[in-house]
Specification:
With about 290 residues, the chain is α/β, with parallel strands linked by helices. The chain is built from 11 helices and 11 strands. The strands form 2 sheets. Strands 1, 2, 3, 4, 5 and 6 form a 6-stranded parallel beta sheet that branches. A 5-stranded parallel beta sheet has the order 8-7-9-10-11, sandwiched between helices.
């Protein structure tokens, strides 16, 4: 693969594009890109590339193209190392398309990609979300697609040499203090700096799943931007649902990009029990090693 190809945007085209074809024509105008289908995606190397998933969803209860792509990403493993992914999903499924897109992006993240914040999901044929203003709904929709492409092209594929890392948690008392001390030691040893600042390079959010869904005080911590990494102690069942709710709030609707393999879950363990386990702490150290 040439250096020229590495700098070229990769559009992963899924489904038969009608309205999305017009959206993409406007969003990509003037940029260098190549279009690949799912078969080529899974049979070639895409290290350190910028990928735009462009998906036309079915109008039925479900979307075979999206589900198949997500399933293959889960099975393939680590083959998108260092890539940055954004997504445009167009269809008429309402909330189903949104949930399917979240599952797709989580699967891509496990395969080694970072996920760009605020993917574009339009699942309403009437474009009601884009109504208002001087421009037509369609013009506002395609302008948002253009902005997403611009953010993807501007995204960095490599983390900073000395990342500034902020720790956030709704946990209190000794457990929060102990976790802060352990993480500061790990981050410093890996070459980063541990700082309580408003605009860090990376935020590490420690959560403990007790009820299946994050409480409001945890979600209130997700009010900034940068790269997010989630450490999830899950002594009770429902860790996947909890993690999905955090990523939905922080990355799908918020301004956080999700770090590669950005969710580290500790199933069946409390936050205190994770600290007491050498094996689990080695997993934590592993996410900061270069």
């Amino acid at each position: 693969m040439s250096k020229k190809d590495i700098g070229k945007l990769v559009v992963v085209s899924i489904g038969r594009h009608t309205r999305l074809g017009d959206i993409l024509e406007y969003a990509l105008a003037g940029y260098s890109f190549e279009t690949v289908d799912a078969e080529r995606l899974f049979n070639e190397s895409w290290t350190n590339r910028k990928l735009l998933f462009a998906i036309s969803a079915d109008e039925s209860d479900g979307n075979a193209h999206l589900h198949t792509l997500t399933s293959h990403l889960r099975e393939k493993g680590d083959f998108l190392e260092g890539c940055v992914v954004a997504a445009i999903v167009d269809g008429a499924q309402g909330a189903l398309a949104h949930l399917d897109a979240l599952a797709l992006l989580m699967a891509a993240n496990r395969a080694g990609t970072s996920i760009l914040s605020r993917p574009l999901i339009e699942a309403d044929r009437e474009l009601r979300f884009w109504s208002g203003g001087r421009e037509s709904s369609f013009e506002r929709y395609r302008a948002s697609a253009r902005q997403l492409v611009e953010r993807l092209l501007a995204a960095e594929t490599t983390p900073p040499e000395r990342p500034r890392v902020r720790f956030a948690t709704a946990l209190e008392g000794g457990v929060a203090h102990d976790w802060s001390g352990v993480l500061e030691e790990i981050v410093t040893a890996s070459g980063g700096t541990f700082e309580d600042i408003i605009a860090p390079d990376e935020t590490v959010l420690l959560c403990e799943n007790m009820d299946g869904l994050p409480e409001e005080r945890t979600q209130a911590l997700l009010n900034a931007s940068g790269t997010l990494r989630l450490l999830l102690a899950s002594p009770t069942p429902g860790g996947d649902l909890y993690a999905s709710a955090i990523i939905e709030r922080a990355c799908m609707r918020g301004n956080y990009c999700l770090a590669p393999r950005g969710v580290l879950a500790f199933e069946g363990l409390s936050a205190v029990e994770v600290l007491a386990s050498k094996r689990e702490l080695e997993r934590v150290k592993g996410i900061f090693r270069k």
